[in-house]
Amino acid sequence: MTSFRLKPVAEQVIVITGASSGIGLATARTAAARGAKVVLVARNAAALAQAVRDIVGAGGEADHVVADVGVLAEVEAAAAHAVARFGRIDTWVSNAGVAIYAALLDTPMDEHERLFRTNYFGTVHGALAAVPRLRERGGALVTVASIVADIPTPVMGAYAASKHAVAGYIGSLRVELAAAKAPVSVTLVKPSGIATPVAQHAANHQQGEALIPPPVYDPQLVADAILHAAEHPRREIAVGGLGRLQALTVMHFPWLLDLAGGLFAKTMRDPARAPTPGDNLDTAGTDGRERSAVQHGRRVSLHRHAPALAAGVAALAGGWWLARRAATRR
């Protein structure tokens, strides 16, 4: 871990990508309320401008940059603007992301590539723009991945693959920066299902409204975790105890997902609702909402108890397997 101290959030300049809705917007509002100077980055100009007006109206300091994280030059320009506006960058939050709901073999290749351009290369571009600036005074690079970075996921396979790639990149970058003794804290935040508008923004090839895989938590929990990482060096933070439990269970008993994958996939759509038209793969979203209009998130996370819960599930699964094996030998 790092040997240097990170500043309190109240003394920081924080850049947040994907800040026009969902986790990014919740993080920007919370950081500004705690005294940080915030630069919001996204493609949705109208939502960004409104968010900045709201923050400034509440007594905070904020600015925004319209940029596509899939384009390195635009991310570089956003970083340069933050330094020109506020003098430095103390924390960079790579949060922008898009999703596709489709079986992998049915996923259109142009959509698949665009998803990786945003989710994976957006992370790479953020690091390329942020790390040289963070190294000057020390700071934090916080990247929002997902708990599905640890879990194979039906229907959202392309999304899960991109988050696996993000985890691999950030982990490797952490090792390289540590070897170079760079004063940069590198944190990967892995939310469980979060009640943001991501499902309504997704490219949806299912029959019915896309749903966020349960259990679903409130985005404020992730915002709080991100700002904790801005002040305290952490390797990883998993948000949502039940999601963490799923990841630990699948790690030790992967065959359970093989058995239950079909049932899990059914929880990711509502056939009684028509799919939300359109998506934000190639064009910006328009709603500027923090929270889903369809699902409501838990405001309490039992992530501290997840290892113990996982051990219990593992014991039950192991006992079931042994009993089944004994029965087949009779």
From TrEMBL:
The lineage of its organism: Bacteria, Pseudomonadati, Pseudomonadota, Alphaproteobacteria, Sphingomonadales. The chain crosses the membrane at residues 305-323. This is SDR family NAD(P)-dependent oxidoreductase. Pfam families: adh_short. Residues 270-294 are annotated as: Disordered. Residues 12-197 form the Ketoreductase domain. Gene3D superfamilies: NAD(P)-binding Rossmann-like Domain (3.40.50.720). InterPro entries: KR_dom (IPR057326), NAD(P)-bd_dom_sf (IPR036291), Sc_DH/Rdtase_CS (IPR020904), SDR_fam (IPR002347). It comes from the Bacteria. Keywords: Membrane, Oxidoreductase, Transmembrane, Transmembrane helix. Belongs to the short-chain dehydrogenases/reductases (SDR) family.
